[in-house]
């Protein structure tokens, strides 16, 4: 296990990055202002992680939330599509 994972200050940066990439999917708002705010928050978490713990911690702060962001975005799109299908099916 890398040493930065044992540091208590790395985990809040990771959770902040996870929250940042989840916000657009949670709000179901993929507009430019929401995406820009999310990206800035994510970059701040990456910079804090890199400054405090080094390049490996920054790489982990990039990769883990990126994977999570893709999953939440695909989930939001999938469930929005299911909702639309249900509305179209039962429309009279």
| Whole-number total of structural domains | 1
Shape summary: elongated
Helix count, per DSSP? 3
Nearest-integer average pLDDT: 88
Characterization of the model:
- The protein has one domain.
- By secondary structure, the protein is an all-alpha fold.
- It has helices at 10-27, 32-53, 55-89.
- The radius of gyration is 17 Å and the shape is elongated.
- Helix content is 82%, strand content 0%.
- The model has no long low-confidence stretch (mean pLDDT 88).
In short:
The protein is mostly helical and 92 residues long. It has one domain (3-89). The protein has three helices and no strands.
Characteristic terms for this protein:
single chain, 92 residues, mainly alpha, 3 helices, elongated
List the helices and strands and how they pair.
Layout: H1 10-27, H2 32-53, H3 55-89
Helix pairs in contact: 1-2, 1-3, 2-3
């Amino acid at each position: 296990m890398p040493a930065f994972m044992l540091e208590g200050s790395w985990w809040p940066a990771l959770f902040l990055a996870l929250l940042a990439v989840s916000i657009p999917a949670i709000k179901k708002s993929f507009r430019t202002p929401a995406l820009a705010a999310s990206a800035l928050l994510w970059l701040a978490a990456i910079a804090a992680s890199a400054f405090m713990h080094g390049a490996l911690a920054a790489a982990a702060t990039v990769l883990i939330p990126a994977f999570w962001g893709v999953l939440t975005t695909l989930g939001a799109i999938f469930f929005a599509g299911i909702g639309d299908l249900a509305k179209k099916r039962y429309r009279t």
